[in-house]
């Protein structure tokens, strides 16, 4: 995208003053008082027009930038949509852009992109939904949350099996509806991403309605650290997972990078920031990083004031 300042400068330069006025200004001594006033008024009007136009351009560009601050319209990568276009160089292995698509009547649902670490059980999805000769029906609040159940007049819904916590946001770009999903998944089960069609009943699945499945590639960049026989920590660019046998009350984890720099990744007095999956005596805590982390730069982690290197 063209730099904002360059665009503004170009717009300003394109609005030029009439060269004939400039030539006549040089010969003002040969003109009458009324003619000089006439030329001065022309110059004044042109200058006002020039800067007024620049001001309007500035407002228009500012509104455009502001309206895309939460989720920019698609055609962009997950890194641009969720992470301010950072981290692609060390996380690209987790990105899948195969564009799986399902068409039902006038509706087309496309899984445009996924970013998923199957070991950590943390991922992101971007769906594009379109309707022939129209706009997919959905009720949204001003924050991009769905008020209705799904879309298409509540006929369709995208659901994730084997997932824990998840967040969904929607936005329209023209007639296209985009759905952005962040989720935690239970690694003990295969993650299933399904499009449910509530207009068609079925006995072939747990929903009781016809569903169409999207394949999610199993990729990982996780590094594992053994804390004890009953506890290990998994570090991924998208987040961390802690597998243990005992309930944790608080946690603080730091990293020491290869360049010697230390960084505190999490310092939680309570575990409310973590998604928790518990089965019998096995507990998994999951934490989604607000920004992608380059785990290949981690030399060791520090937990409970002790240093731990990656497991061989």
Keywords summarizing the entry:
312 residues; alpha+beta; Immunoglobulin-like; 3 domains; six-stranded antiparallel sheet; five-stranded antiparallel sheet; 5 helices; 18 strands; disordered N terminus
Describe the overall structure.
- There is one protein chain.
- This protein is of the alpha+beta class and about 300 residues long.
- The protein has 3 domains: about 5-65; about 80-215, Sandwich (Immunoglobulin-like); about 225-310, Immunoglobulin-like (Sandwich), CATH 2.60.40.
- It has 5 helices and 18 strands.
- Strands 1, 2, 3, 4, 6 and 7 form a 6-stranded antiparallel β-sheet that branches.
- The protein is elongated, with a radius of gyration of 28 Å.
What is the compact description of this entry?
The protein has 312 residues and is α+β, with helices and mostly antiparallel strands.
Q: How would you summarize the topology of this molecule?
A:
Elements: H1 4-14, H2 19-25, H3 33-67, H4 78-83, H5 88-91, E1 95-96, E2 100-104, E3 107-117, E4 122-131, E5 156-161, E6 163-173, E7 176-185, E8 192-201, E9 209-214, E10 223-228, E11 231-235, E12 239-244, E13 251-257, E14 262-268, E15 275-279, E16 282-288, E17 298-303, E18 306-308
Antiparallel strand pairs: 1-3, 2-3, 3-4, 4-7, 5-8, 6-7, 8-9, 10-11, 11-12, 12-16, 13-14, 13-17, 15-16, 17-18
């Amino acid at each position: 995208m063209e730099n904002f300042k360059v665009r503004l400068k170009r717009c300003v330069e394109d609005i030029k003053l009439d060269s004939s006025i400039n030539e006549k200004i040089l010969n003002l001594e040969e003109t009458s008082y009324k003619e000089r006033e006439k030329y001065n008024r022309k110059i004044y009007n042109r200058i006002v027009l020039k800067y007024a136009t620049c001001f309007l351009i500035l407002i228009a560009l500012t509104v455009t930038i502001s309206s895309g601050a939460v989720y920019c319209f698609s055609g962009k990568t997950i890194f641009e949509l969720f992470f301010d276009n950072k981290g692609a160089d060390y996380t690209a292995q987790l990105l899948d852009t195969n564009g799986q698509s399902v068409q039902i009547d006038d509706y087309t649902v496309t899984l445009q992109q996924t970013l998923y670490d199957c070991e950590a059980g943390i991922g992101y999805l971007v769906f594009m939904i379109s309707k022939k000769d129209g706009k997919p029906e959905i009720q949204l609040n001003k924050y991009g949350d769905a008020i209705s159940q799904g879309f298409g007049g509540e006929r369709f819904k995208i659901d994730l099996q084997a997932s824990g916590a998840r967040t969904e946001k929607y936005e329209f770009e023209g007639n296209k509806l985009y759905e952005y999903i962040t989720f935690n998944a239970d690694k003990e089960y295969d993650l299933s991403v399904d499009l449910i069609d509530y207009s068609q009943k079925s006995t072939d699945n747990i929903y009781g309605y016809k569903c169409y499945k999207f394949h999610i590639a199993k990729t990982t960049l996780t590094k594992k650290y053994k804390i004890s026989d009953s506890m290990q920590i998994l570090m991924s660019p998208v987040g961390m997972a802690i597998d243990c046998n005992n309930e944790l009350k608080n946690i603080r984890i730091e990293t020491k990078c290869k360049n010697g720099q230390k960084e505190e990744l999490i310092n939680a007095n309570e575990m409310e920031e973590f998604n928790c999956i518990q089965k019998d005596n096995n507990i998994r805590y999951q934490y989604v990083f607000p920004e992608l982390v380059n785990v290949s730069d981690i030399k060791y982690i520090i937990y409970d004031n002790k240093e731990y290197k990656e497991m061989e």
